[in-house]
Amino acid sequence: MLRYIRTRVLAMVPVLVGMSILVFVTMRLIPGDAAVVFLGTKPTPEAIAAFREKAGLDQPMYVQYVDWIGRLVRGDLGLSLTTGTNIGHELSTRLPITAELTLLSMLVAVVVAVPLGILAAIKHNTAVDLGLTGLGMIGLSLPNFWLGTLLAFLFAIKVQWFPPGGYVPFGEDPVGNLKAMTLPAISLGLVSASVIMRMTRSSMLEVVRQDFVRTARAKGLREGVITRRHMLKSALIPVVTVIGMEFGYIFGGAFLVEAVFYLPGVATYALLAVNQRDYPVLQTVVLLVTLVFMLVNLLVDVLYTYLDPRLRVA
Length: 314
Hints:
globular, 79% helix, 14 helices, mainly alpha, MetI-like fold
């Protein structure tokens, strides 16, 4: 297992290098000039030239890339073009917020989706199954930022059960932290729950037709025992894959939800960087999201070996 993990980690290096080149070039293709955005609508040519020289934007693109990647390898994430603040320091304060939102959203998604998916499979072709399938289709069609806006209007403005936005560190006020994160987590989690629920239902229906399930029923085992001990473990393998993918999507796709609820996370930081053409910030955030995706995929593959002993032998 350790050898497999080591091989997978080494395989991440060329992917990250390729992504860094793609991100670096793509950022330069975004319309607009960081110097003009920073200096205002009518900057003088001298001011633009001075800004570009200070930021290193007057150098050839390959020189800028080598300088940026060299600092990254040394652990220096650089400075923001517009604010001059250290990107590493900013991410260290914002990353825990986005990570907490991602984990809470996945908790909501899994707690809602897996039981409902199992129930829909057990009640196949009944009113319960049709109703849950319909809810899943509705959830798939709802944009998470629209759902977040609706939840904020209903539960933060109308009934005032939760704050409309902002962030409170868990260490300062655990209750206030959970109240602030509840609506954003539900906004992201329910949309992902629709995907996970449909996969859980489909996977469970596939397992129901297997010979070992018929054998377990022939032995006289109760349906609850068959579902928990026999069907669920086999059905979880594709479900874990989808959960891993949704984890990455939530982490990388929390931009609009963080903006709706005024959460100062990584996504909000990236949105500000897009508006300000802050190339170093955007490049670093995209690479961070790519790395999270790959690490989650590695974790999912490792979990496979515990869900299916045949893969462990292979």
